[in-house]
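Re: [ENG-882] Designed sequences occasionally contain unexpected residues at chain ends

Forwarding the minimal case from QA. Structure tokens:
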């Protein structure tokens, strides 16, 4: 059943029609308004709660489940809305974690790491990518090699220990060093090493 010959209301229209019906009735319950407008009672209950906070209506009787309300102010002095947050706000953007950020997070959590541990705790990062990033961090003083492979390639290490925890953002490898996003500092590679 529609009120005043209008179509079944939506969102703000429903709120406006419900408010006019409340003003015409004088004393009402949420169930009465919901039944007359043929909409869910919870929408009317939300509206009455908002109107109570604005001190536009007051509660007259609390007998049972159906609380009775009365309109206190003039119909035109009310701020109506849909009860939803404003849609003008831009949605929060979440950056997808890069492979190197995942490696850095794993290093910061575990403090002592090796390539296999990082492989288990990261996704979509190759063995070579992990090794290259660990080598770059070791060559700039972020990591300390704990044990080297005898007879292996220079700076080949099994385990590393975190020495410089500068913050949550991963250091970015550049051509001749590492840029720290947290401290805004550039750390060059140790002499005799290059990372490419």
């Amino acid at each position: 059943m529609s009120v005043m010959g209008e179509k079944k209301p939506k969102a703000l229209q429903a709120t406006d029609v419900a408010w006019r019906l409340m003003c015409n009735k004088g004393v009402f319950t949420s169930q009465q308004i919901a039944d007359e407008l043929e909409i869910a009672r919870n929408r009317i209950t939300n509206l009455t709660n908002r109107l109570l906070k604005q001190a536009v209506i007051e509660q007259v009787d609390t007998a049972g489940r159906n609380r009775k309300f009365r309109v206190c102010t003039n119909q035109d002095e009310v701020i109506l809305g849909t009860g939803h947050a404003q849609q003008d706000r831009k949605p929060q953007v979440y950056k997808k974690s890069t492979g190197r950020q995942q490696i850095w997070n794993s290093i910061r959590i575990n403090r002592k790491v090796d390539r296999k541990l990082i492989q288990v705790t990261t996704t979509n990062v190759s063995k070579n990518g992990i090794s290259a990033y660990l080598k770059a961090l070791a060559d700039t003083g972020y990591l300390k090699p704990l044990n080297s492979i005898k007879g292996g390639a220079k700076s080949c290490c099994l385990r590393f220990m975190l020495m410089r925890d500068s913050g949550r953002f991963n250091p970015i490898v550049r051509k001749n060093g590492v840029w720290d996003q947290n401290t805004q500092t550039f750390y060059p590679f140790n002499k005799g090493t290059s990372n490419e």
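QA comment: On inspection the terminal residues look reasonable. The chain has six helices and nine strands. Proposing we downgrade this to a documentation issue.
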